[in-house]
Amino acid sequence: MSAAHLCGAHLIGINLTQANLNGTNLSRADLREAKLNKATLVQTLLQGANLEQVQVNGANFQGANLRGIPWLIVKDLMVQPEANFTSIQWDNPIDDAMLSKD
What we know:
Elements (H helix, E strand, L loop, with lengths): L70 H8 L17 H4 L3
């Protein structure tokens, strides 16, 4: 499925364990509760995708675009075992301490 165009696809609960999704366009896709364990998502476009409760143990997101995804969801993904998020693009949360500076 490498380099497929699945923009806006409804993939709720899909099992993509060990899938090769390199360069795939999954922007705005609904992947709630999907299984992406050990999947390869290098340079994948996930901008605005719904990644709530997605399993990504051992998945490789190197260079993926995760912009437009709430940072708490990105954080939940990043703490899963052995997942690689090297060089991803994502919207960094605004630091409250920065807002309070004069």
